[in-house]
Design goal:
Elements: H1 7-24, H2 28-34, H3 39-47, H4 66-79, H5 81-101, H6 104-116, E1 118-119, E2 122-123, E3 126-129, E4 145-148, E5 152-163, E6 170-176, E7 186-192, E8 198-200, E9 214-225, H7 236-272, E10 274-275, E11 278-279, H8 284-312, H9 318-343, H10 354-364, H11 371-383
Parallel strand pairs: 3-6
Antiparallel strand pairs: 1-2, 4-5, 5-9, 6-7, 8-9, 10-11
The structure holds acetoacetyl-coenzyme A.
Length: about 375
């Protein structure tokens, strides 16, 4: 066993850190306030190869391991979680499933531009459409229907809370084909956003990750060629679960980054702010907070890297990714709240960043499976 990062991993970490500081930090407060999608940042991330980090080079990806992805997600999330959620969805919820399960023809058509994040010089990213108004945690309860019409399907229904909802060019849509078969009657389709019958709802006005592009998507008699179904008939729910297991590593790494971003700011502030005649870092009340933050962050980091290592080594990572996600997201919420406390009144205003990180942390306990869902997965796995 060894804990050192490789030369390549260190290089990726540094590239992500530089990118976060140089490209994401300027304007992050304004983008949050105006709920502005960070299009310029995502476009530059694509040029850096970070939108298809783990995709094989022959499909336009960077061919890196999952640990590198975790490191990059952490660095970018320290600064702007609205950028990193877009990156996470494209990498692990869209590119991964298409690379793993789609046909060669589907990969050439969709994966190549998705992994590059660009097509004809324009942004080209994807979204994962599973959640519905009445199907969040209860994901098998799909109401969106895909009616089999021979050489095509007709999609009807509504998807909710869709990250990259308006900015994506391609949607992976999960829909019910045969309700009598339950989770085995669900399929997944690659659907181009400009297909007639698709309507994008208004952007959600959110507590955190306000720059990210979250919308409802409505389908009315949307015709999708059978050639755009991924996998065998009825594969859609398994596809969603397998994809989410990897997605949860990405969100765990995002939560880790939000926590470490707030922690680094709390350390810096406590060494500069004076109270009762000394730096507040010299007061044990503050030191104990910093010590607990550092310890929990390190534990979250190890869980993330462990899950990434299992994924890269062909070991079932369903359990480890849920453990990483529940622990990292709860750490993010706790650490960011404490970071605001360390900053006192300054923590409560926007200029010091930690209030935004605290707002951003909350969603990591909700999306890609709530903390409660992660505990279901963990509980079932350990009792099986
Ligand atoms: N891999 C393969 N198959 C799996 C699986 C996995 N990880 N998990 C479940 N399955 C299979 C089961 O074996 C079962 O098959 P059988 O009927 O043959 O046994 C079938 O799928 C149904 O599974 P369950 O009976 O376990 O289903 P359930 O109704 O009890 O639900 C659940 C399980 C874990 C709660 C699941 O519904 C779930 O993960 N819910 C959360 C959904 C979620 O994460 N949504 C996030 C939305 S995406 C998002 O947030 C993206 C974004 O924009 C940021």
């Amino acid at each position: 066993m060894h804990f050192e990062l490789s030369e390549e991993q260190l290089m990726i970490q540094k590239a992500a850190r530089d990118f976060a500081i140089n490209e994401c930090l300027p304007g992050v407060i304004e983008r949050d306030e105006k709920q502005q999608f960070p299009k310029e940042q995502i476009s530059k991330l694509a040029d850096l190869g970070f939108m298809g980090m783990m995709v094989e080079e022959k499909y336009g990806g960077a061919g890196l391991d999952t640990a590198s992805y975790v490191l990059a997600m952490e660095e970018i999330s320290k600064v702007d979680a609205s950028v990193s959620v877009c990156m996470s969805v494209n990498n692990s919820l869209v590119c991964w499933g298409v690379e793993k399960y789609a046909t060669e023809e589907q990969k050439q058509r969709y994966l190549v531009p998705l992994a590059q994040g660009k097509k004809d010089g324009e942004l080209y990213i994807g979204a994962f459409l599973l959640s519905e108004p009445e199907a969040g945690s209860d994901a098998t309860s799909q109401h969106t229907t895909a009616e089999d019409k021979g050489d095509h399907y007709i999609l009807n229904g509504t998807k909710n809370w869709i990250t990259n909802g308006n900015s994506a060019s391609v949607y992976l849509v999960i829909a019910q084909t045969d309700v009598s078969k339950g989770s085995k009657g669900i399929n997944v389709f690659i659907v181009e956003k400009n297909t007639p019958g698709i309507t994008v709802g208004a952007k959600e006005n959110k507590l955190g990750i306000r720059g990210s592009d979250t919308h409802s998507i409505m389908f009315q008699d949307v015709k999708v060629p059978k050639a755009n179904r991924i996998g065998e008939d009825g594969f859609g729910f398994t596809f969603a679960m397998k994809t989410l297991a990897g997605g949860r590593i990405g969100i765990a790494a995002q939560a880790l980054g939000i926590a470490s971003g707030a922690y680094e700011r709390a350390v810096a502030y406590s060494k500069q702010r004076k109270a009762f005649g000394k730096e507040i870092a010299q007061h044990q009340a503050i030191q104990f907070k910093l010590a607990d933050m550092a310890t929990r962050i390190e534990a979250a980091r190890l869980l993330c890297l462990r899950a990434a290592w299992e994924k890269d080594n062909g070991i079932d990572y369903t359990l480890s990714s849920s453990m990483a996600k529940v622990y990292a997201s709860e750490t993010a919420m706790w650490v960011t709240t404490e970071a605001v406390q360390v900053h006192g009144g300054y923590g409560f205003v926007k200029e010091y960043h930690v209030e935004r990180l605290m707002r951003d942390a909350k969603i990591t306990q909700i999306y890609e499976g709530t903390s409660e869902v992660q505990r279901i997965v963990i509980g079932r796995s350990i009792l099986k």
